[in-house]
Amino acid sequence: MVKPRKKDLTDQQRAGADSMTAGAERNPPMAPEQSAEEIFASEGQTLQDAMTNQLPTATLAPPATPTTAVTTNEAAQGEPGEKKWTEAPDPFGRYNIDLGDGRRLRFFRSNRFQQVGISFYSNDESVDPKPSGEETEWLKSNGFDRYRPQAKGRTMQLVSQDQKEEIDEMEDKRGEQSAKFLRAKFRMETDLAAEQAFVEFANSIRVKNGLEPVESSIGERARF
Predict the structure, then answer these.
(1) Which DSSP category does 6 fall into?
(2) N or C: which end of the chain has fewer CB within 10 A?
(3) Is residue 190 part of a domain?
(4) Is residue 134 part of a domain?
(5) Pairing relation of β-strands 103-110 and 115-122?
(6) Residues in the chain with pLDDT < 50?
(7) Dihedral in degrees, nearest 10, Cα atoms 85, 91, 97, 101
């Protein structure tokens, strides 16, 4: 059988052929399927970069109250790597000053008992750090009137009994929030005054031992 030439096609057949040709022009053959990596590579970036750019920026929360992780013998006998969380030491040392006679003077604070304190300790075992009678009297007369065996030093309460009565009166008159502000004010003032007394005391001993006094100012650590 001889196939009809295009000019011998009927009008309906020619219309169908033309429609197919136009459709092919509008919808060209699909290109080979590309992976996500290839698509992003053509745009000058990696898939990981593209994913990262789509992620929201994270805001870090403030750090939590510091705690100390220690591995105990009991924990070692349990799950591998198991840790036991404990609170930071209390009292904790703020700073210390060399006295020039084999001893150092230490300023510490206890948040648990709301105290600040001063203690002596030695630089080596051959020196007895115990304060002299004169040094003990100085501490007592300047508000460090209680000896605390655990800290091996004399302490001062951040809020005195008279100040506690003022705080109670403030709470009765103006409420709990005002009382909290007053208590915080008393604590800060006592802490700073005790720090200055600590530096003055250390300097009085250093001068006797032929050393230069250290410098300090309110709110700053002693420099030595």
Answers:
(1) G
(2) N
(3) yes
(4) yes
(5) antiparallel
(6) 1-4, 6-7, 24-36, 39-40, 46-48, 50-76, 217-220, 222-224
(7) -110
Distance of alpha carbon 186 from alpha carbon 167, whole angstroms: 10
Q: Residue written as tokens 């100390």? A: 68
Residue 68 lies in a domain: no
R_g of the chain computed on alpha carbons: 40
How many domains is the chain partitioned into structurally? 1
Cα 159 from Cα 147, distance rounded (Å): 17
Coil vs helix vs strand at 14: helix
The mean pLDDT of the chain is 74
Got the DSSP string for 104-173? Answer: EEEEEEETTTTEEEEEEEESSTTS--PPPHHHHHHHHHTT--EEETTTTEEEEESS-HHHHHHHHHHHHH
CB 47 within 8 A of CB 40: yes
Residues in the chain: 224
Are residues 95 and 77 in contact, defined by beta-carbon separation less than 8 angstroms? no
CA-to-CA dists, residue 19 to 16, 24, 28, 117, angstroms: 5, 9, 14, 98
CB atoms closer than 10 angstroms to residue 162: 9
